């Protein structure tokens, strides 16, 4: 599998560190108790289909990316810089 890093170009998947889903669904509301928060932090859903994930180009530019990957086929559907989503460091 190859990932198209927006800064480095097409690279082998082994150059990247995968952190997991970029968005966690179901964050408990305040007051739901420690069990709900424990489940949120430690139990992961494993959806089949397109999923946004945090990937770091660890052996390249070290940028954090949002990779949209089909978890059923492993097809990469899109790659963008995570800083573009979070607003980056432009405020500094
Ligand atoms: Zn890169």
Polypeptide structure, described:
By secondary structure, this protein is α+β, with helices and mostly antiparallel strands. It has one domain (about 1-85): 2-Layer Sandwich (Folate-binding fold), CATH 3.30.2270.10. Helix content is about 15%, strand content about 35%. It is built from two helices and six strands; from the N terminus they run E-E-E-H-E-E-E-H. It has helices spanning about 35-40, 80-85, and strands at about 1-5, 10, 15-20, 50-55, 65-70, 75-80. The strands form two sheets. It has a four-stranded antiparallel beta sheet with strand order 3-4-5-6. A two-stranded antiparallel ribbon has the order 1-2. A hairpin with a 3-residue loop joins strand 1 (about 1-5) and strand 2. It is elongated and about 45 Å long. It starts with a strand and ends in a 6-residue tail after the last helix. Zinc ion (ZN) binds near residues 57, 60 and 61. The site of zinc ion has 7 residues, from loops.
């Amino acid at each position: 599998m190859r990932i198209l890093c927006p800064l480095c170009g097409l690279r082998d998947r082994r150059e990247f560190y995968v952190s997991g889903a970029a968005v966690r669904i179901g964050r408990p509301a305040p007051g739901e108790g420690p069990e709900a928060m424990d489940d949120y932090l430690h139990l992961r859903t494993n959806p089949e289909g397109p999923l946004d994930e945090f990937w770091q180009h660890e052996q390249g530019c070290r940028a954090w990316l949002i990779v949209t990957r089909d978890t059923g086929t492993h097809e990469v559907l899109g790659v963008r810089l995570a800083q573009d989503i979070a607003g980056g460091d432009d405020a500094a």
